[in-house]
């Protein structure tokens, strides 16, 4: 038995070059942690928390959840039919398949932040352009992920539906969708969680919500409010994760 093949040695060598090159490019240096106490001093300014603005920040948190929820839900609704067109086994023909895959790749390659900046020129400041930016990006991401789930679906149910004379879209609806639905829900809740974090970044460009408050509090050195913002963000992410797991349990 050969424990170490030549090809594995080449892979290891290439990987080592990539790691060393990346460390040089990113100035990766663990010795910089010698000033770790600066971080401790900075974090100590976050406490005690200033809870006077908690009701207002709670409202902003609800706005953030609303942005993330709409961006994820509408993204899923639009991505779902597109994903059937972008899957090899359910697409009408190769032209539709390639065009849809290209469209999804394009949407996925543009970050929400860039979509947000473009949309600001038309829609102005506020949460609405943030929602649209998240929808665009989620269409690209969810479309790709769901199309891969469709391609890995069992062929048997589809062939059975075809044998009884069902049209292709009826077959997709009743033979493919039930197979992939739990995983689609998992992807949706993961993107919902990601959208909460994305909406924080969009707050930097006036997208509203707790992200905008976090940016303002950092800029104005109100660190005792920053700690409240971070706490609310953590609670939101944990809540979405908990709800997602419970709903998925019910569906499975």
Automatic annotation (TrEMBL):
It is a multi-pass membrane protein. One of its GO terms (molecular function) is ABC-type phosphonate transporter activity. The chain crosses the membrane at residues 62-83, 117-136, 194-215, 221-240. Signal peptide: none annotated. InterPro entries: MetI-like (IPR000515), MetI-like_sf (IPR035906), PhnE/PtxC (IPR005769). PANTHER family: ABC TRANSPORT SYSTEM PERMEASE PROTEIN P69, PHOSPHONATES TRANSPORT SYSTEM PERMEASE PROTEIN. Belongs to the binding-protein-dependent transport system permease family. NCBIfam families: PhnE (TIGR01097). This is Phosphonate ABC transporter, permease protein PhnE. It comes from Fictibacillus phosphorivorans. The lineage of its organism: Bacteria, Bacillati, Bacillota, Bacilli, Bacillales.
């Amino acid at each position: 038995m050969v424990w170490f093949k030549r090809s594995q040695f080449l892979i290891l060598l290439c990987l080592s070059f990539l790691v060393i090159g990346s460390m040089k490019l990113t100035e990766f240096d663990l010795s910089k942690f010698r000033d770790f106490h600066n971080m401790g001093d900075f974090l100590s300014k976050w406490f005690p928390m200033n809870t006077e603005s908690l009701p207002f920040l709670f409202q902003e948190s609800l706005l953030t959840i609303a942005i993330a929820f709409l961006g994820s839900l509408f993204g899923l609704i639009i991505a779902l039919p597109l994903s059937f067109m972008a899957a090899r086994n359910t697409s009408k023909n190769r032209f539709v398949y390639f065009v849809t895959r290209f469209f999804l790749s394009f949407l996925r390659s543009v970050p929400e932040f860039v979509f947000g900046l473009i949309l600001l020129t038309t829609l102005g400041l506020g949460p609405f352009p943030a929602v649209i930016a998240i929808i665009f990006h989620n269409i690209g991401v969810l479309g790709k992920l769901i199309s891969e789930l469709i391609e890995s679906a069992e062929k048997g149910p589809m062939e059975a539906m075809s044998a009884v004379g069902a049209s292709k879209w009826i077959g997709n609806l009743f033979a493919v969708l039930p197979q992939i639905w739990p995983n689609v829900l998992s992807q949706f809740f993961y993107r919902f969680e990601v959208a909460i974090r994305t909406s924080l970044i969009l707050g930097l460009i006036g997208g509203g919500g707790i992200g905008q408050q976090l940016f303002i509090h950092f800029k104005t050195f109100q660190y005792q409010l920053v700690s409240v913002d971070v706490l609310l963000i953590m609670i939101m992410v944990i809540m979405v994760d908990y709800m997602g797991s419970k709903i998925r349990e019910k569906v499975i």
